Amino acid sequence: MTDTLLKESPLLVALDKEKTVYDGFISVQEKDFRLRISLPPDHQLKKAKLHCCWQLKQLLKNYQDIVKQRLRHSSDLVSFILELRTILEVALKSQPGWLSIPPPQYYSQLITEIEDLGWNKLLFIDTDFHTLQLSAEDSSGRQHAITVKLKPKYPAEAPECSADLPVPLAITWTPQSTLAHIHSQFLLIVEALAEFWAVLDEIDEHTWVLEPEKPTRADSMRRIAIGNSVSIKLEIDPRHPKMLPECCLLGAEHVVTPLRNKLNANMHLWNPDCSVLQNMKDVMEIEFPSPATHEKSSFSVECGICYAYRLDSAIPDQVCNDPRCGQPFHQACLYEWLRGLPTSRQSFNVVFGECPYCNKPITVKMAIQKP
């Protein structure tokens, strides 16, 4: 077997006299992959262990079950190596160009560009020098990051850029562009959004934000607590952050209706020179509970069906309209509860039924499944 193995894979050799450990390379399509095979003392192939280089692991990621099967059923090591080579040939054909390594000038140019930009602006770079993360600080001291994924033909081929922004990231690129060009364009974009983030920072600081639980720089929505089981969703326009945002009041109808009437009646009082938060107070004629005056637990009322506050990322947003009840529910919980009642009825995407607590009429829209 040793002679046959040497003929088939001359770069894979035994490291011990017992021939239980083989180390070296397996060659496929003029590419060499580092491989080590450890056999048990009885040379049972089904108990062998494979140690692969990272390229080989990546290539065999979708073929692991097949490799394990061939280990169990191959008659000897030579047969397994031949079968492994066949699997690798199939994998390489299905992933053309996956192992294309950039030329040396790619790396030297990249190092030069990082030096010109400043190593202090490099947050991360992977071991392949293909993915970088650059930091940027706007004029208000907010920290931002942009992820840059370079292509093998960089800079002739434009990189993929992504960042935590509420608007699409548009980076202009030419074959003469560099990382410094990306960074400078990114700075201009975040500066243009400075007023938008200032609006949200004020809301986050001075109100109890119920959703999102942990806002990112890309989030333009805030659900703010007004009172027990009463809140308002604000959708801030990133391009016009000081204008009247889209508003959606959530809560029992007898509580929400007066607030909605004030909002509609006083909309003309909106002053773009004032902050969004101050405008909302003036237009709705209310004071929002703040971390300085209220505990968040005052607004974290559990769902009356699942007895939890958060269900995945959702919080209770359906409320019984009876003033004597006012029990909140998750939309998904209430929908499933009502759908299971023999007395409930459905019209299009709305289910009509009775409140689980007070038996008064209650309705809920079908829960939208997130992709």
From TrEMBL:
Residues 303-359 form the RING-type domain. PROSITE patterns: ZF_RING_2. The keyword DNA damage applies. It is found in: Cytoplasm; Nucleus. Its main location: cytoplasm. It comes from the Eukaryota. InterPro entries: Fancl (IPR026848), FANCL_C (IPR026850), FANCL_d2 (IPR043898), FANCL_d3 (IPR044037), FANCL_d3_sf (IPR043003), FancL_WD-rpt_cont_dom (IPR019162), UBQ-conjugating_enzyme/RWD (IPR016135), Znf_RING (IPR001841). It catalyses: S-ubiquitinyl-[E2 ubiquitin-conjugating enzyme]-L-cysteine + [acceptor protein]-L-lysine = [E2 ubiquitin-conjugating enzyme]-L-cysteine + N(6)-ubiquitinyl-[acceptor protein]-L-lysine. One of its GO terms (biological process) is protein monoubiquitination. Keywords: Cytoplasm, DNA damage, DNA repair, Metal-binding, Nucleus, Transferase, Ubl conjugation, Ubl conjugation pathway, Zinc, Zinc-finger. Pathway: Protein modification; protein ubiquitination. Its EC number is 2.3.2.27. It is an enzyme of class 2 (transferase). One of its GO terms (molecular function) is zinc ion binding. GO terms for cellular component: cytoplasm; Fanconi anaemia nuclear complex. This is E3 ubiquitin-protein ligase FANCL. It comes from Pygocentrus nattereri (Red-bellied piranha).
